[in-house]
Design brief:
- The chain is α/β, with parallel strands linked by helices and 620 residues long.
- Among the domains are: 285 residues, no CATH class; 94 residues, Elongation Factor Tu (Ef-tu), domain 3 (Beta Barrel), CATH 2.40.30.10.
- It contains 20 helices and 14 strands.
- Strands 6-5-8-3-4-7 form a 6-stranded antiparallel β-sheet. Strands 12-11-10-9-13-14 form a 6-stranded parallel β-sheet, sandwiched between helices.
- Helix 15 links the parallel strand 9 and strand 10.
- The protein is globular.
Length: 620
């Protein structure tokens, strides 16, 4: 944060040759701390880029068979996937997957070790210059700041280079923000300690803080205190309980505080130690990302504001069909931010697209469940209107998506909870289209869908029935579980009341919760290569993640026959528990009980948006 010096500091005071203690940590060399932080973050980014290249090369079958069959290689892949899947839940709080947690911890330990291993923390005289500990930690926050802002933007160079969409990067945006806040405190405390403990000679009893604020009226004190106040708002009001309860208010406050904080940052640093170069570079990069996003929005809406027709469905669902530009393209599991101009013109919310583009009739299909916020306002707006009524919708996207072609695996397991099925459906449609191709590796697809109420099955039953009819023989099996109050009397009793035909391509309803861990384990045991995609409630995703991690651990210790795959489609291929994609979003479409869309809720929960998780995060 602050890189300023007091009014009594002179150019000669910063000469590290002026005293032995100043030579230990020269003031004019302090920008090295900002550069060190930047190098660490860029190095981490480079690892993700290299990982993306490795996956791309692997998927294109460019590795030699000997390399793929190497035990070291296969176990290395299994370890990386274990790190990307294993998740802890402590006192009901879901923490990031193990890999992301270790990466964040490594960054924090690096900063702490560097900041506090260098001495001195304070100069022997208060009127020499700012405390070196304050300067070090302040420059470290400057090094973090560009990444914090960039990771918050929808379009950013990190996404461009790594292939991880913005929602997957939010976990790093959040934790970097909290580390920034902590180091902002480390930056401020030395000024307070030094300022309160020493009195300026020759004056009435007056601390350095009082002297700087009331006599010399230095901006770095009042601006620093103001910045800390805004940091408290930015960080702590972003926690899930507050954010979810007052989301729309929070969003406005968060944006206003961010802009104000940036302005105060310029004032506070006052061009010291090349700080303006860092801040202006951050502004330019962030502005470019915003400009690119708006340019893309104009292209997507270039044919005029899209119009959406609506259809009321059972269980409080509304299906929207949005006519879009014929050239508009999106992939399986991607989402758009939608702005309903006639409902809430100043708000945009993310919704998953439940279909794939069509050359005959290009339209976005969105399923929305009435709850609160924008979905409640939309439902009220449509209530009593003629079904032929259209609604103006401004679209912004696409974002997110699966990020990996599941057709390169012999078996695909798609798991959905509730409205999470709308994320699974376009993935399923894409897989079925590819299975009709002779060179497609995927031979079988398994869908497991759990709903709370039996009426909810009607949302997608027609689409699922069509999928089963169109699928090659024995290529697709769909199983639907009902877990709500009517189905929870007793799992054993309910199974006796009505048991669907086991082994049928489409079987439902199965009453009671599905044993997700058993399903994943069985799929891993029966498959040579396996890709898993999941979307649904936190509890479901937690179970899937850890079921995946258990299999990966067995691979590492040689307890599982499935290992890293050989070339897809090769009859001599080894077994594989391949890339796992888990979507940590509460539901695919609609809103939660508090009225925000699921992806918005999870932005600031500890268990979400995790690029390390190799997750298939999508927005709702």
């Amino acid at each position: 944060m602050s890189t300023n010096t007091s009014a009594t500091e002179s150019h000669s005071a910063h000469d590290h040759g002026s005293s032995p203690e100043m030579a230990a940590d020269p003031y004019e060399e302090s920008p090295k701390y900002a550069k060190g932080v930047l190098y660490f973050l860029c190095g981490t980014l480079a690892l993700f880029i290299i990982g993306r290249w490795i996956v791309a090369i692997r998927n294109q079958r460019r590795f030699s068979q000997s390399a793929l069959k190497s035990g070291i290689y296969r176990k290395g892949i299994a370890i990386s996937r274990y790190l990307s899947s294993k998740q802890q839940r402590i006192f009901g709080v879901h923490f990031p997957v193990l890999g992301s947690g270790l990466l964040i911890l490594a960054f924090f330990v690096f900063l702490m070790a560097w900041a506090f291993s260098v001495h001195p923390y304070y100069w022997s005289s208060w009127d020499v210059q700012s405390p070196p500990l304050a300067i070090r930690t302040g420059l470290m926050t400057i090094g973090m700041y560009p990444f914090i802002l960039i990771l918050a933007s929808k379009w950013n160079f990190v996404t461009l280079l790594t292939g991880h969409s913005y929602e997957k990067l939010q976990v790093f945006h959040q934790f970097l923000g909290h580390i920034f806040f902590l180091f902002g405190m480390f930056h401020s405390f030395p000024y307070v300690v030094q300022g309160m403990s020493e009195v300026k000679p020759g004056w009435e009893p007056m601390t350095k803080i009082e002297y700087s604020i009331f006599v010399t009226k230095k901006v770095y004190y009042w601006s620093g205190f103001a910045m800390l106040g805004f940091l408290v708002i930015l960080c702590w009001l972003s926690l899930s309980p507050i954010r979810n309860r007052y989301y729309e208010t929070f969003k406005i406050i968060h944006h206003l505080c961010s802009l104000t904080f940036l302005g105060l940052f310029f004032v506070h640093c006052n061009s010291k130690l090349d700080s303006n170069d860092w801040l202006w570079s951050t502004v330019v990069v962030y502005s470019l990302s915003v400009a690119f996003r708006f340019a893309w929005m104009l292209i997507s809406n270039s044919g005029g504001t899209p119009k959406a027709s609506f259809e009321l469905m059972p269980a409080g669902m509304v299906k929207l069909r949005i006519k879009c530009n014929p050239n508009e393209k999106w992939g399986p599991g991607q989402h758009y931010f939608l702005n309903f101009k006639s409902v809430l013109p100043l708000q945009s919310h993310p919704f998953t697209i439940a279909n794939l583009p069509s050359p005959e009739k290009n339209e976005l299909v969105v399923l929305i469940r009435q709850a609160h916020g924008v979905t409640k306002a939309l439902a009220q707006h449509l209530e009593g209107k003629d079904p032929n009524t259209t609604v103006l919708v401004f679209i912004d996207g696409p974002f997110g998506g699966i990020g990996q072609d599941l057709s390169i695996y012999e078996h695909a397991l798609l798991i959905a909870g509730g409205t999470g099925v709308t994320f699974i459906m376009p993935v399923l449609q894409d897989l079925l289209a590819k299975t009709r191709q002779k060179d497609c590796v995927c031979r079988s697809i398994q869908v497991l869908w759990s709903v709370r109420e039996e009426d909810s099955i009607s949302w997608m039953i027609a689409e699922l029935e069509n999928a089963v009819k169109e699928a090659p023989s024995s290529a697709l099996t769909v199983k639907i579980h009902v877990t709500g109050a009517a189905a929870s009397k007793n799992d054993d009793d309910s199974e006796k009341e009505k048991v669907p035909q086991a082994g049928a391509a489409l079987s439902y309803p199965w009453y009671g919760r599905a044993d997700v861990r058993a399903v994943v384990s069985a799929a891993a045991a029966d498959s040579r290569t396996l890709g898993v995609a999941a979307c649904g409630p936190e509890t479901l995703l937690y179970d899937v993640r850890n079921a995946v991690a258990d299999v990966e651990k067995d691979i590492v210790f040689g307890k599982a026959k499935c290992t890293e795959r050989s070339t897809p489609g090769n009859d001599s291929a080894d077994y594989d528990f391949s890339s796992i994609y888990i979507n940590p979003v509460l539901s695919i479409v609609g809103t939660r009980a508090t009225g925000q869309s699921p992806i918005e809720k999870l932005w600031f929960k500890l268990d979400t948006v995790d690029p390390f998780a190799d997750d298939m995060l999508r927005a709702a």
